[in-house]
Design a protein that fits this description.
This protein is an alpha/beta fold. The protein has three domains: about 100 residues, 3-Layer(aba) Sandwich (Rossmann fold); about 190 residues, Mur-like, catalytic domain (UDP-N-acetylmuramoyl-L-alanine:D-glutamate ligase), CATH 3.40.1190; about 140 residues, Mur ligase, C-terminal domain (Protein-Tyrosine Phosphatase, Chain A). The chain is about 35% helix and about 20% strand. The strands form three sheets. The chain has a six-stranded parallel β-sheet, sandwiched between helices. A six-stranded mixed β-sheet has the order 12-13-17-14-15-16, sandwiched between helices. It has a five-stranded parallel β-sheet with strand order 3-2-1-4-5. A hairpin with a 2-residue loop joins β12 and β13. The radius of gyration is 22 Å and the shape is globular.
């Protein structure tokens, strides 16, 4: 594991997508420090990427090609670091393959060079962030003989640079979306312990309405597991699995954690807790110690996160609910766990080509008003479905927050749960999250 610098030194690597979230910046810095010959290409302009570009200005082995992708930057390269959302059959990836390059992603490349640690991977349309956070907290607080790291789709965390820290026997807990799992598929590897939380329609704009293609990418979390490996999932996901697996399947159910004190609302979150507990059991952590961690667990930012009580109005941040099903789960959780009868929903954004019939029905039945973020998804919703409750679109998030407060009265709940993608008004979901939290705090 100490040879990674030698392995990357002098390698011709094209990084496709620097971005603003910090992950691309993290592994670009790492590869530059290792002495790789880097081309960084991104469709965003230099001005849009000012912060990231400035952070890399001291490295003389980086060439920037911004505002465009060029085929020539994918020829004669050893490795292409592919960003999320780029199709595997894009003209640039095809050009790289034709010229013999390896197609890699952050976590799978890390896994190749750190084979002597235990990798716990978590995927699912919904629930992977909460499950990842719970697993990390339980293990890191109880396993004192080894280090536990967190990576994957965690905000601001690049996984590849962890090669500088990990030692034999350490553990990486990583959240893996379908795109990160494409990297595992390319490498023909899977995590040692895999958790598959749920499978629902999402990213249909990317997968061209093919649930099969979407599941096939998700399935790389278990497809290449070995006989000593473990897959933890539920009955619904198990039904979708075809063919015989080498690994052992363990089913988790929210009933398994009925005796746990857990403040995060929603049956779906208790299901996520059940997955985390099953993982902890593989390390023989006593139930009493697991319960202690769970009791003190405060939740995850942007997942039904209670922000403030403003003049008797409870405001929740469910920013990471980027599908109709996720928002429905949030609405149901508030209704059932907190008896929230009058919900003002803040939602809307970019279209993901997802069905909205049931979403509309649930919103009409359970909400008193909807204030919407403008975007292509919002336009599709309003054009093709009938909202029977008060509704309007705000021009920006500041106005949207102000309007939602006007609709709400003492005893009501404001739920910020977008149900759509962030792109359009925001660069990413984190920018949307931070602005909403800031605006709500400014209400006080």
């Amino acid at each position: 594991m100490n040879n990674f610098r030698k392995d990357f030194k002098g390698k011709k690597i094209t990084i496709m997508g620097l971005g603003l979230l910090g992950r691309g910046l993290g592994y670009t810095k790492f590869l530059a420090e290792c002495g790789a010959d880097l081309i960084v290409t991104d469709l965003k302009s230099k001005e849009q990427l000012t912060t990231s570009v400035k952070s890399l200005s001291k490295y003389r082995n980086i060439k920037f090609v911004l505002g465009e992708h060029r085929l020539e930057d994918f020829r004669g390269r050893d490795i292409i670091m592919k960003m999320a959302g780029v199709p595997m059959d894009s003209i640039y990836i095809n050009e790289a393959r034709k010229n013999g390059a390896q197609i890699e992603m952050d976590v799978s490349l890390f896994a190749k060079f750190a084979p002597e640690i235990i990798i716990i991977g978590v995927t699912g349309t919904r629930g992977k962030s909460m499950t990842t956070a719970l697993i990390y907290e339980i293990l890191s607080q109880n396993l004192k003989d080894r280090k536990v790291y967190i990576g994957g789709n965690v905000r601001g965390v690049a996984t590849l640079p962890l090669l500088k820290k990990v030692k034999v026997g350490d553990i990486l807990v990583c959240e893996l979306d379908s795109w990160q799992l494409q990297g595992f598929g390319e490498a023909k590897i899977s995590p040692h312990i895999s958790v598959f939380t749920s499978f629902m329609p999402d990213h249909m704009n990317y997968y061209k309405n093919s649930m099969e293609d979407y599941f096939n990418d998700k399935a790389f979390i278990f497809k290449n597991q070995k006989v000593e490996d473990i897959l933890i999932t539920n009955k619904e996901v198990k039904k979708r699995i075809t063919g015989k697996l080498k690994s052992k399947i363990i089913l988790a159910d929210k009933k398994d954690v009925s005796g746990f004190k857990f403040i995060v609302p929603g049956d779906h979150q208790r299901q996520n807790l059940a997955y985390a507990v099953k993982v902890a059991e593989q390390f023989e952590i006593p139930v009493s110690k697991i319960k202690k961690v769970v009791t003190n667990f405060k939740g995850v930012e942007g997942r039904l996160q209670f922000l403030i009580n403003y003049k008797g109005i409870k405001i929740y941040n469910d920013n990471n609910a980027t599908t109709p099903e996720a928002t429905i789960a949030g609405i149901k959780a508030l209704r059932r766990d907190f008896n929230s009868r009058n919900i003002v929903l803040v939602c809307g954004g970019a279209d993901k080509k997802l069905a909205l019939t049931n979403f509309t029905k649930i919103v009409n039945k359970n909400c008193k008003a909807v204030v919407m973020i403008p975007g292509t998804g919002t336009d599709v919703w309003l054009k093709n479905y009938k909202l029977k409750i008060s509704n309007e679109i705000g021009k920006d998030l500041k106005e949207i927050v102000q309007k939602s407060v006007k609709y709400a009265k003492k005893g009501d709940t404001i739920l910020f749960s977008p149900a759509f993608a962030s792109f359009g008004m925001f660069n990413n979901e984190y920018e949307r999250n931070d602005l909403f939290v800031k605006l709500v705090k400014n209400l006080q």
